[in-house]
Every structure is written in C-alpha cells, then in structure tokens.
Design a protein that fits this description.
Among the domains are: 133-233 and 324-346, Ribonuclease H-like superfamily/Ribonuclease H (Nucleotidyltransferase, domain 5); 237-313, Nuclear Transport Factor 2, Chain: A (Roll). The chain is 33% helix and 18% strand. The chain contains 16 helices and 16 strands. It has helices at 10-18, 21-28, 40-52, 61-65, 68-74, 81-89, 97-100, 111-128, 191-201, 220-228, 241-247, 319-327, 333-343, 354-377, 388-396, 417-425, and strands at 2-4, 135-142, 145-146, 153-154, 160-162, 165-169, 174-179, 208-213, 232-236, 255-259, 263-270, 285-293, 305-312, 400-405, 408-413, 468-472. The strands form three sheets. The chain has a nine-stranded mixed sheet with strand order 7-6-2-8-9-13-12-11-10, sandwiched between helices. A four-stranded antiparallel sheet has the order 1-14-15-16, with helices on one face. It has a three-stranded antiparallel sheet with strand order 3-5-4, with no helix packed on it. Strand 14 and strand 15 (408-413) form a beta hairpin.
Length: 490
C-alpha cells in the first residue's frame, strides 16, 4: 500500500500523453549527451509537473521524487535536481554572453531552444485540432521579471532583471510564441520577428488573422508587414508631437465614450499619416482618445487632459468598436503574464545562464497551455476559467491510497463522491490516431477513465461510492506499456 497527497497531478501527465508529447519530444528535442538515464521527455514532464504543483525552483522536484505512490502513478520516478539543472544548461549558448554586456542584444536561440520551440508550436496546433479554428486573434506584450542575479541587466523600471515578450492566442487561451530578453532590451525591439513567429504557429485552417499590441508594437516594419499580409490589427500609437498637435486641434469633434467617476473619456477619428508611411499605401485609421480629469484631477504630466490614440486597418468597425476591441487585450495577455509569474514560476529564473532561463520561461508557457487544454477538454465547466491555484486546491492535491492485488491496481481517492465522479466521467475529446511511425508512448496510471494498451482490452473503471478506481493490471509498472488515462490522443 502506498499513499500520495498529489494524485491529481496525473491529470497533467495524462494531458501530455494525450497530445503525443513523448514522441514529439523524442523527435524534436535531442539534447542528451548520454543515452542512459532519464530521457528529455522525463525531464520536461518533471518540470511541467513541478510548475503545476506549485513548485518555484528546480530543487522543489525533490518533493515529487520522494513521493513513491506518485512515481508509480506516473510510471517513472522524477529526475534529480542536478539532472534538471544540467538539462536546462543545455539550452544556453556561452559564445553569445559577451554581446549581452555591450547594449541591447537579443541572443539567437541554439539548437536546443529551437527544438523546444518546435515542441511548443506543435502542441499548440494539436490542442486546437479538434475544433479546427478559422479565426485567430493574437495579442503581443512584454513583461518585466525582476531578478537579483548577477547576470541580470538593468531594466526600464530601475531594477535589474529580464523583459520577455509573449504572444497569446486570445480566444483559445494558448501562448503561441515568446522571445526571452534582457532587461535592457526595449520592448519595441524586433516586434515584427516575434509576430511573424507567432502567426507561423497557427494551423492552416485559420483564414482570418487579427493582431493587437501596445505602443511597443507601433513600429514601421510591423505595421507595413501586417498591412501587406492583410492581418486586421489595432495598435496603441506613440503620441508624437505631430500626433498630439492633431489631437489638440480645435477642428477635432469629440464624442463622449465613457463618463467615469474621476474622468471623462472622449473619442474622435482623426486624419493622420506617419511620416514614413508610403503615399500609395492604404491609409490607416487613427482613433484619438481624450481623458479629461474631473474636479481638478491632474495626470502624471501635471495637466488635466491626456491624449492616447489607436491605429487600425479595420474598416468594418466604427471608432468606439475599435477602442473596445483593442482594450480587450488587457484581459488576455496581461492575464497570461499574471498567471505565469504569480501562479506558476516564470518570475523566478533558476539560473545565471541566459539560455537556461529562456527555456524555463518557455516551459512555464507550455505548462500554461497544458492547463488550458486540461480545463477545456477534460474538466467540469465550473473549472473552465480556474487559475492554477484553484486547480491545485481542488484537483492536484487529491489524496489517494494505491493497492496492488490480483493483477489489479486500485486507487482509493480521499475526496467526495461528487468530485471523484467529475474526474472519472468528464467529457473527453475524440481520439486522434497516432502516426504509424511514432514510437509507442509510455503510459501512466491515471485517475480518469482508462483506455486499453496495444492489443490488450482494458477493464472498465470501477467507482465504489464515487471514490475508488480499479483496472486490470496488464503489465508491470516498469514494462514497455503502462496504464494510462482517458483524455485520448487529440
């Protein structure tokens, strides 16, 4: 008999298996120097489970490693902290370190980081394959990660740290691309390349592409590329002296947009052409916003009036609709930054090596995506918008007693019958057939519905008072085929 207090983490492992991550990692992420010991997938899964469980540093994997019952459910023990540190160090390119000290510089990714990017991108496509989306809205934004490591560089807020950029597929709540940067790298540097990488991840079924960004994306190269590719966009414009003078012109007609407690927001569509915008190019729409403080309220510049502007190529929306749609970005990409930094561990770089920290950040985004897939495809509707903290409280910290008897593995859950029934009977997506060339995936015992191993029927799950699962044990836990949960393969 073995006891674990984290049996619900097998749902995260099951999501990895359902997406075919093991075969994908074995083909795209080959960084091991020796062929013995834990595989790349073992280490990737350990970090993902560590982050999902609430761990904040690599050393926290000891908690998972010491959990014998959880290791049996996962059909493999967790790697050691030293093994994970060595794994992350393989994503670092020491030859580029000297360039980081000379000014704003974005190191190019080595083969290991590019392989991890391929894994991340393919998992995004597999996650949405079931509903075959035709429209995609991508939101791009940078965030500051404070760090006191000696290798961290000064950032715009006065401290030291890093300033990675991420792109979120808003409707599907999936991070599609990222670029890890030092703190001294401006948020507006090379935004076109990040946007191009993000749109390249989208599946071929997507026909309508949209983009939203803050003033860091107000870049000539990005604007021209979006217009050329016929991607609908809204971007916050820099309030240059010439644009401010247009906004302050007496000829501008303002309409009240929002009457707030401390200020009145008015909007107006104005005529403005950037200085380097080609005359033959399609003109852009500029929607100006005026914020007027009430009762003598002053803004940070000492005035009672502030001007902002949004630039767009969307002709089908009126000025108010453009502003509302643009402001929706604050509830998507900002939520991603909040969750990855505060609920996961993106705010705590594990190393002084830039490449290792870049891989750590990308694995945080990958964990965010896996939890989004889990919530949308396998959990009750009431958990659709749950943060990782809620998932830990209700699911991942489910206690279970494991018993092996008469070739059966039984997991008795220490939860109410209602919760156990939700875990067992939650809807699953249709199975996606694996490629005939893909290696047989390793399988793990799961709390959810079981499905058969190759050439072997699975016993039906037995739920005693909604709290016990039992399956026929068709192979030893160390054999080539293992017990697995029922998310299926997407």
């Amino acid at each position: 008999m073995d006891l674990t207090a984290q049996a619900g983490l097998t749902l995260v492992a099951e999501t990895l298996m359902a997406l075919g991550t093991e075969a994908l990692v074995s083909s795209e992420l080959r960084v091991r120097r020796r062929q013995r010991g834990h595989t790349e997938f073992d280490k990737l899964q350990a970090i993902v489970l560590l982050l999902a469980a609430g761990g904040e540093c690599i050393e926290d994997v000891r908690k998972l490693r010491e959990d014998v019952a959880l290791s049996k459910l996962l059909a493999r023990p967790a790697p050691s902290p030293d093994a994970l540190h060595e794994f992350l160090s393989l994503f670092h390119d020491e030859s580029q370190e000297s360039c980081r000290e000379k000014g704003a510089f974005i190191p190019s990714e080595n083969a290991a980081l590019r392989g991890l990017s391929c894994v991340h991108s393919e998992l995004v496509r597999r996650a949405v394959r079931a509903h075959n989306p035709t429209t995609a809205t991508l939101d791009l934004d940078a965030t500051v990660i404070e760090s006191h490591k000696r290798a961290a560089l000064p950032h715009k807020k006065g401290g030291r740290g890093y300033q990675p950029t991420a792109v979120l597929w808003a409707p599907d709540d999936l991070a599609v691309a990222d670029q890890y940067r030092d703190g001294n790298v401006p948020a507006g540097m090379h935004t076109k390349q990040v946007a191009q990488q993000a749109f390249s991840v989208l599946p071929q079924s997507v026909q309508q592409r949209r983009f939203r960004g803050d003033s860091a994306c107000y870049d000539e190269a990005l604007l021209k590329w979006l217009s050329k590719e016929q991607i609908a966009f809204t971007i916050s414009a820099d309030i240059s002296p010439s644009l401010r003078s247009v906004c302050m012109s007496p000829s501008v007609t303002w309409q009240v947009f929002e009457d707030r407690a401390h200020e009145v927001v008015a909007i107006s569509e104005i005529e403005f052409t950037p200085g380097d915008w080609h005359k033959s190019a399609r003109p852009l729409r500029y929607v100006a916003l005026r914020f007027c403080g009430k009762q003598g309220r002053l803004f940070s510049d000492g005035t009672d009036t502030k001007y902002l502007a949004v630039v767009s190529n969307r002709e089908e929306l009126d000025a108010a609709e453009i502003v509302r749609w643009h402001w929706e970005k604050a509830g998507t990409i900002e939520h991603l930054h909040d969750v990855t930094k505060n609920d996961l561990a993106a705010r705590l770089p594990p190393s002084g090596k830039f490449g290792a920290n870049a891989a750590w950040y990308r694995l945080n985004l990958l964990t965010y995506n896996l939890l989004s897939v889990l919530k949308r495809h396998a959990l009750p509707e009431r958990l659709r918008h749950a943060r990782p903290k809620r998932l830990r409280f209700e699911l991942f910290t489910v206690p279970a007693v494991l018993r092996h008897h008469a070739r059966k593995l039984t997991a008795q859950l220490g939860v109410s019958p209602i919760t156990a029934t939700e875990l067992i009977t939650a809807p699953r997506p249709p199975a996606r057939p694996a490629s005939p060339d893909s290696p047989a995936p390793r399988r793990c015992a799961s709390l959810a519905r079981f499905f058969p191993a190759p050439n072997r029927p699975a016993a039906a799950p037995v739920c005693q008072a909604g709290a016990t699962l039992s399956v026929e044990k068709h192979a030893t836990l160390t054999g080539p085929h293992r017990l697995s949960g029922g998310l299926g393969r997407f």
